[in-house]
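Minutes, project check-in

Agenda point 3 was the complex the collaborators sent over. CS summarized: two entities, 510 residues total, and the question is how they sit relative to each other. Sequences were read into the notes so everyone works from the same version.
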Amino acid sequence: MKLIKVEHISKNFVNNSMTLEVLGDINFEVEKGETSIILGPSGCGKTTLFNIIAGLTSTTKGKMFFENEEILSPYKKIGVIFQETRLFPWLKIKENIAFGLKLKKITDQDKITAKYIDIVGLKGFENLYPHELSGGMKQRVAIARTLAVEPEIILMDEPFSALDPKTRKKMHELIWEIREKLGTTILFITHNIKEAVFLANKIYILSALPAEIIKEFEIQKYWRNDKNKIAEIENQITKIITEA
Amino acid sequence: MKKNGQNLELTKRKYLIFVLSGTLLIILVWAILSYLRIVSPIFLSTPTETLKNIYNLFINDDILKDVFVSIVRVVSGFVLALMVGLPLGIFCGVFKKIEAFLETNISFLRYIPVAAFIPLAILWFGVSEAEKTFLIFIGVLPYVILYTSVAAANVEKEYIEVGKTFGANDWQLLKKIILPRALPNIWDMARIEMGGAWALVILAEIIASNSGLGYRLILAQRFLHTTDIFALIIIIGSIGFIIDQLFKLGYFYMFPWAEKSKVKTI
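CS then shared the predicted structure for the full assembly.
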């Protein structure tokens, strides 16, 4: 089932009568239960695309649908995780995670919060403030905060780019774990080819400005243990991106 | 200053040494000028005389009653200004239309010295508690609105976006994000304004009153009780200092997260 459908989206920024075409003509779909990756070089408009799908920026042309409903503003079934964790510094970890639950006045908030604290491996840190945590732990909290409201799809914008390689690897494992356990659909934006190949069911490669999808890749789950296959795909993608 | 422009970090002990030496220097200058009679006692009383007089004022002269009166006045005017100014300030910071609507009034009010309102206040309210409350209120209000609106307007849009992605409506954004994020800065503003309000109450009492610390000050001047004047100045300053320290303490108690996340807020 198609969860998200992006149809002919383009975006121009106009500044002092100069028009910058950021997104050309973007079309893609996200299947329920899959992890789709938007991969592209830095400065190719990935974050603009992310903001559009999150409902935080308008499009110049084109439409976007969740199931069959058009998305025009932040949509309650789409969970969003930003590049910077954007945790609320005035709330303790457990209060940050319960933020969305409180807004929606959901019952059993403590139980749900505890469940997701457990899933992201932060038991014992509930009563700390964000500034007391490391970068990786903060991103775990951000993930739990979004998961807690049980969105149908999670949208992530380079969430691990500021982390060291070891922590990033741990976070990748966490994403796999969450996907296996909760069957979450993910749309993940990154410039990191290895990250994309490791996490994806499907990769969409963006060109430089104005960005368009120039190639799609399906990644089979069983390739994960096949180092040669992974390396081959990574090489192919690198070639496409450098030649684009 | 360091080469890269960062503030020079001081250890707590060194900081305290500098605090004490700054204080001692003033007392030393005061002592030299007064004990050596460089300045006549009619104009400058000695530190020991002043201390004795402070003791006297508290024990024999019931100064505590006037301290209490002044504090009640300042608190009532200040609280009233906060009650009106905080919501207005937040709305100004968040909604451009309200900001535009109030801008001229606030800027105009801010540039009128409060002393200019004293004749009007006496005309309207007589020499009364209401008159003093009004003066503090009118003196503090424009600043409360201004600083609160700046604090609310400066809440990072990134946090507001997070709220929106969780489906928060405008009221929830205000209550759950803008207000708690702006509160430490509003508290800092209140601390500064409290200093202003304390100065105002003394001024209002000096000009027209029959109780309070300002009234005692003008009384001491009329009878040429220089040591009383010095004692009262020190009492007024000390109370101001204590109030300020309470605000500082309150900040650390209420916003344990704020100091640490000041450097990097997101």
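Noted in discussion: The domain at 46-261 of chain B is CATH 1.10.3720.10 (MetI-like fold).
Follow-up: revisit at the next meeting once the mutant set is ready.
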